Amino acid sequence: MAVEKKITYFKEPGAPENTEKLIALVKDRAKELGVKQILVPSTTGTTGVKFAKAFENEDIKVIVVTEVRGEGFEPENMEKLEEMGIKILTASHAFAGLDRSYIKEVGGGISVERVTAMVLRRFSQGMKVAVEISLMAVDAGLITDAGNQEIISIGGTSKGIDTAIAVRPTSTTRFFDKERGVEIREIIAMPRSKNSIDPENI
């Protein structure tokens, strides 16, 4: 039995106008799938607040994921999200950490994490981000019953979000597990053209 679903392709990766369209697409698909958790990456907190407001009256939990350094997260956005009861995860990138530190120290090299990130970025930068933050959220204990449910995870390019996937999340230690490994089950939206791969930003 086949199921036909629409994928939205954005012409301009990271364009600010993609955000509102992506929010609407995610809201519709989350209801159709019965998804209860949505992961949103946000460097300044602005995108996180937009998603939180969009799902404020829905029975869907929004979790905001930000960079480990967190310097760019605006205090007013942090305050708004905390007032709304939104959980904010600040953690090292699942595909970086020790890997990036080692490569900088020895002046090059390759690893499973780096290759995985580069392959996902062949779809789009947002695809890499969407998969990565799902791992981070499971590792942090913010995704319940991982491996047995679907969530929607968001990603983007530069300062705009443009990618959304339905994914069965898992932890980093189970990424390649045959039974409970990560599964990208649907692409809801992604950019049609890609930005060049920046090895320093993997």
Give a quick set of tags describing it.
202 residues, alpha/beta, Pyruvate Kinase, Chain: A, domain 1, 6 helices, 33% helix, globular, disordered C terminus
Helices and strands, with pairings:
Elements: E1 8-10, H1 18-33, E2 37-41, H2 46-54, E3 61-66, H3 75-83, E4 87-90, H4 98-106, H5 112-120, H6 125-139, E5 151-157, E6 160-168, E7 183-191
Parallel strand pairs: 1-7, 2-3, 2-5, 3-4
Antiparallel strand pairs: 5-6, 6-7
Helix pairs in contact: 5-6
What does this protein structure show overall?
With 202 residues, this protein is an alpha/beta fold. It has helices at residues 18-33, 46-54, 75-83, 98-106, 112-120, 125-139; strands spanning 8-10, 37-41, 61-66, 87-90, 151-157, 160-168, 183-191. The protein is 33% helix and 21% strand. The protein has a seven-stranded mixed beta sheet, with helices on both faces. The radius of gyration is 16 Å and the shape is globular. The N and C termini lie far apart (38 Å). The relative contact order is 0.20. Residues 196-202 have low confidence and may be disordered.
CATH fold-level assignment: Pyruvate Kinase, Chain: A, domain 1
Kindly provide the name of the CATH class: Alpha Beta
The appropriate CATH architecture is: 3-Layer(aba) Sandwich
Query: What's the average pLDDT?
Result: 87
Strand content: 15-25%
The major sheet is characterized as: 7 strands, mixed
- N-to-C CA distance: 38 Å
Number of helices: 6
Q: Which residues form runs of ≥5 with pLDDT under 50?
A: 196-202
Total count of domains: 1
Number of beta strands:
7
Q: What percentage of residues falls in helices of 4 or more residues? A: 25-40%
The CATH homologous superfamily is called Pyruvate kinase, C-terminal domain
Which series of helices and strands comes N to C? EHEHEHEHHHEEE
Structural class by sheet pairing and helices: alpha/beta
Strand order of the largest sheet: 1-7-6-5-2-3-4
Anisotropy-based shape: globular
Q: Any idea what the radius of gyration is? A: 16 Å
